[in-house]
Amino acid sequence: MSDQVLQLRKVCMTYGNGANSVGALRDINLDVSAGEFVAVMGPSGSGKSSLLTLAGGLEKATSGDIYVENTPLGALNINELARLRRRAIGYVFQDFNLVPSLTAVENVALPRELDGVPSRKARRQAMDALRSVGIDELADRFMDQISGGQRQRVAIARAIVGQRRLILADEPTGALDTASGDGIMEVLRHRADAGCAVVLVTHEARHAGWADRVLFLKDGRIVDQAAQSYDPTDLLELPAN
Amino acid sequence: MSLNLEPQHRAKKQQLKLALRISWRDIKRHRGRSTLIAALIAVPIMMISAALVAGFSKMPSTEETITNEFGQTAGRVSLQYSDLAGISQSPKGDLSSVISDADAESGQRNGTLDDFKDLVLPDYDVLPLSSISLTTEREHATLSFDAVIGDVLNPAFDGKYKLLEGRKATSNMEAFGTPGFMQRFDLQLGDRFSTNAGEFTMVGMVRDSNSNDSFPTFFAAANDLPENFVLGPNETKYYLLGQKPATWTLATELNQRGAILTSAELLRNPPPAEQVGASAKDFADAPSGNGLDLIMTGALIASLAMLEVGLLAGAAFAVGTRKQQQDLALLAATGAEAGTLKSVVSASGLWLGLIGGIAGTLAGTGVGIAWVLWKLHNGENLLWLHIPWPLMLGVVLLALIAGVLSAYGPARMVANQALNVALKSGRTTSNHSRKSLRRGIFWLALSLLLLALSASLSLFEIIHDFELRSYLALALVIMSSIGLISSLILLTAPLLRLVAAKSAWLPLPLRLATRDSARNTGRTVPAVAAVLAAATLSSAILIYWSSSSHTENDNYQWSYNLNQMALPLTVFEYSPSSIGAMGTASSDALTTRKINAEELSSAALKVLGDGTSAAAIQGAFDQNECAGLDPNSVEIDGIMHSPDCSTWALKEPVGHQCFVATDGKPIDLQDWRCRGSMANDSGSSSLPTIVVGGEETLETLLGRKASPEALQTLTSGGAVVSNPVYLNADETTTLISYDANAEPQESVDTAEQMSSLRTSFSPQHSFPLLATVEEPTKPIPYYAVISPETASRIGMPYDERLVLLSLNEVPSDAVNDTLLTALSEVAGENYGPEKLETGPNSNVTSALWLLVGVSALVTFSATGITAGLALADGREDHSVLASIGADPRLRKSLSAAQLFLTSVIGTLFGIVAGIVATGTLQLLFRDMALIIPWTQLTIMLLVVPCIGSVMAWLLTKGRLHVLRHRTLA
Fold first, then answer.
1. I need a surface site. Which of B32, B92, B623, B886 has the fewest CB within 10 A?
2. What is the mean pLDDT of residues B199-228?
């Protein structure tokens, strides 16, 4: 049995119609297995975020197939996609995207509670997740009471709570200082080492260096990929073709 | 292995709990917005609750009625005609509007205590209380007042009467008064007070629980009245003092003696219908059909008010939800299903509805209690503080439903949004115009269909039962009004798109406003909806009030022309032997006394001054008065008949009769034959039906100079007719005399009912007279004026009937008092003129403008609230404009233009909806004309948007906070 957590087969994504159409992704094929940390790099408009959006089931691909834990996303209705997101996928955003009216632990427990887990049990699981990212002492703080780095850790804790094996991180360090950013990368690395599949979209080669594999996207295509032995900054110097 | 994506057991419950928690936190985070929405719900709920407390406090419970009516006694016996066996009473006794189904026959004697004392004396002591009228002299005028004669401070009447101040009577000729009585006659405790029953010392102030303290009532003991002062049996009620319950068995026995029992036992435990017998149905409380139009209009306005609350709160929710969109999108990204997102917003409605409902109900209950206590403190005794708790809970539930419903629309909108778009920008543009157009047209068609159905129910009388038909039509009108409002809301977005497409020629601010409004319909449509609902409510109230006032004025029955007052020249008097207690004199003791017209006129003119004119009006004898005075009269069935006395009238030519429908109103309300003076036997005044006089009399009646043709007709022996209905084709009229006291003939054609009773009598004499029609300024009740010569020629007896005073203005109370005194000096003590004719309510226009002001304020509040929220929502647009160099003036203009557009469309649609809804409702009432106050509505249409725009201009800040865009990509 394949241990691929995320599979993309000939995935295309086009915005707009006719002459106004823009191809965001073209013929993307990608496999991410459990315990693998993949970084996606590329210039603005290359399709990095679109890739994550499709992988997270937030939008439907124009063509091609996407599988999460061997489940074809194209066959799911809107409610099944919602359940998939809360059971299998953890999303981490640049702006943290935490619900400001909830405390840290409540934010983390949210996907579990949405899935019908009783509040007390969900809170216990959330505390475990917070502990694993090292901020369990901030559990009862609201979002405006903690720093940016701490917020991003809360977001990661939310992404991993409930045994989810796919973490999609969209520029998670974009709003953080260097030290906080490094701390977040460390956490993501640990999650990958613990068996999660992590897909990281980043502009910074320094952060891509934490990944097992780096993909380079340009104009909606994967133009190159490198294993960890490469220095990610080398990719930036490669010719476009 | 595929993932298990089946819903988890308990997930729904958990999601609901989560939705409630998140929405509660969100409410706490946005206190200003939440307070506003809760207040929008709370205000109408407060008004409803206050009205409920006030309304229910006017309805006594059975025990309160018992205490008020009987004090500590077991009940009371009231007397009817004692010779009449087989009388049947209602279980409520004399408290029922239907007291007895007995037919009083002449010659029967009035009952006395002796008629039934053997039935009650073994078990009860009897305490009599009599209600009579007494009189007192005040500066030459005789004033009458109500008096209760009996031992009102007996402990048996505890709860019914209460000594407020002073002491009980300790010797003869000591009396009490209500606070209102003491005030009316300016009395202090210890003062002496003269009445026609003797001089009393006022020793106490007493409260009568059955009337307000301000009502003047005098209380004295029966043995203080002079011996010749006979208390009539029908004026006395005998209270039963004893422990034994006065049951239905006693009531039926008393009925056999012509008496009625009203008792605590019967009120507490009314007998079953089968025991009451066949008449039980007759005694059931009659349905109050009179207030039907009020109930229906109230229901329509209440429905519109709730709709208004829903839409206004809905608009606030819609704007709030847009601000909440980011959070909701995050929830969606975390895995929340569409239903959960809906639940979060709907849960806000639930919380705010609950808060608004509880706050509104508590505040309304407080206001209601304060009002009741204030009234009780001010001596209003017919109030009992009642709080209908179950209904109050219902009101809270109503608020809860209103909250959830108003949040549901925005919740659906949010749940259906594309997650990614929401996550990326936090703002979306709605583009459902075509769908809205289709839905709008569908709802419009459906509403018009329902309106047509309602109208045909009213017009074609498809259902014969009037009440059922009315309620059904009302339900249809309410449904179609809501449908119409919904359709107009749905059509707003397509309309805005159309306006935006044609806006290229507009100045920049207006162009930007139309384009932005068309793009951001999620913001604009709720704002338009709120204004629309407010304008619908306002215009419906305006139109209904304007129409009902107009109809009331139109149906007003003029007794005389404006500011005219009649001084009758005949006074009816009772024989001296019967004076003492009112109501005991029989008709044979009645005499008439004539008063000199000249003396009366000069006395009146002396008081009223130069601006007043007086004209003595002569006319045909009143038939009953004539027969009463005629020694040859014969009494048949209690009515005096004389061969020499007739009623005089004009006869309608064939084809000029006014036919009425089953509701008693003309078949065609605009039928000229049913309008004008004496068109339908209308009017109640002392004017003779056929007036005899010359030019001066004619001018007084017409209220203007008579035409030369009319004067010519008068002098040449013809009649100046008040209504063209009475004019024959050959320019003549037919003067007839008939016996109005005779048995009326059966109608020839029962299918057609005429408005005039006169047509059912055969004329005794007919006189064709040359005629000219000269209609009086107001349709005052007389047929025609003929000259004295003509009256003599045709043998019509006539005399001076009254003096008609024409005043320039309404006299003050002081002048009235002086006039009364002056007239009493000429005409005797009990003389009183008729009420001055002041016409229908003349404050319609000013009240209408006041209503416009209130309506505009309501609509403006809706505009202001939604605009404020929309402006807050559009702050980012202003930041963008500022960043590209737009000066504050342009941004202010943009805000003003946006608000203008929103409020113009909302107010215009609202007025249309109000007109259609009210117009259809009024079809139910055939005689109510639909009067649309165009001027007031146009001013509302202009004022609300203009003031709103000015406010938006002023409230748009010159300096802006720099906002950070929340983007993820």
1. B32
2. 88
Of A38-52, A210-224, B351-365, B931-945, the range with the lowest mean pLDDT is: B931-945
Please write the tens of the pLDDT for every residue from B673-716.
887 888 765 556 778 888 998 888 888 888 888 899 999 998 99
Task: Round to the nearest angstrom and report the end-to-end CA distance of chain B.
Answer: 33
The pLDDT, as a whole number, for residue A229 is 52
User: Which chain A residues touch B14 with a CB distance below 8 Å?
Assistant: 113-119
**What does the alpha-carbon distance between residue B54 and residue B52 come to, in Å, rounded to a whole number?**
5
Q: Which residues of B touch A (CB under 8 A)?
A: 1-5, 7-15, 17-18, 21-22, 25-26, 28-29, 326-327, 330-340, 418-420, 423, 966-969
Of the listed ranges A227-231, B398-402, B470-474, the one predicted with least confidence: A227-231
Contacts of A79 in chain B (CB under 8 A): 7, 337-339
In the prediction, which pLDDT does B540 show? 81
Answer left, alpha or beta for residue B928, where phi above 0 means left and psi between -120 and 50 means alpha: beta
Query: CB A118 to CB B10 under 8 A?
Result: yes
AA letter at B564: Q
Instruction: Say whether A114 and B11 touch across the interface (CB within 8 A).
Output: yes
Residue B799 host element (H or E): strand B798-806
Which among A87, A88, A95 has CB closest to B968? A95
- The pLDDT of residue B744 is 61
H or E element: which one contains A22?
Answer: strand A22-33
pLDDT at A14 over 60: yes
pLDDT of amino acid A204: 85
Q: pLDDT digit string (tens) for B121-147? A: 788 888 888 888 888 877 666 677 889
User: B398 φ, ψ to 5°?
Assistant: -60, -45
Size of interface A-B (CB pairs under 8 A): 125
Is A53 touching B (CB cutoff 8 A)?
yes
* Residue A102 with chain B: CB contacts under 8 Å: 22, 25
Write the ipTM: 0.73
Under DSSP, the state recorded for B80 is -
A111 touches chain B (CB under 8 A): yes
CA A91 to the chain's CA centroid = 5
For chain B, give the mean pLDDT: 77
Q: Taken in order B776, B780, B781, B786, is the CA torsion positive or negative?
A: negative
Largest alpha-carbon pair distance within chain A? 55
End-to-end CA distance of chain A: 35
- State the best of A68, A114, A173, A201 to mutate against chain B, taking most chain B CBs within 10 Å: A114
A113 touches chain B (CB under 8 A): yes
* CB-CB neighbors (< 8 A) of B11 in chain A: 114-116
Which of A102, A113, A170 has its CB closest to that of B968?
A170
User: Is A115 part of the contact surface with chain B (CB cutoff 8 Å)?
Assistant: yes
Put simply, whether A88 touches B (Cβ < 8 Å) is yes
Integer Cα distance of A141 and A154 in angstroms: 11
Q: B75-79 and B259-263 as β-strands: parallel, antiparallel, unpaired?
A: antiparallel
Confidence of residue B291 (pLDDT cuts 50, 70, 90): very low
Residues in chain B: 969
Distances (CA, A) of B846 to B138, B259, B851, B852, B929: 38, 53, 9, 10, 20
- Identify which of A56, A114, A170 has the shortest CB distance to residue B18: A114
Residues 6+ apart with CB under 8 A from A120: none
Dist CA B670 CA B906 (whole Å): 36
Query: What is the pLDDT averaged over residues B336-353?
Result: 85
**Closest CA in chain B for residue A49:** B969
pLDDT attached to residue B924: 64
The maximal CA–CA distance of chain B, rounded, in angstroms, is 121
Tokens describing residue B836: 């001055």
pTM value is 0.64
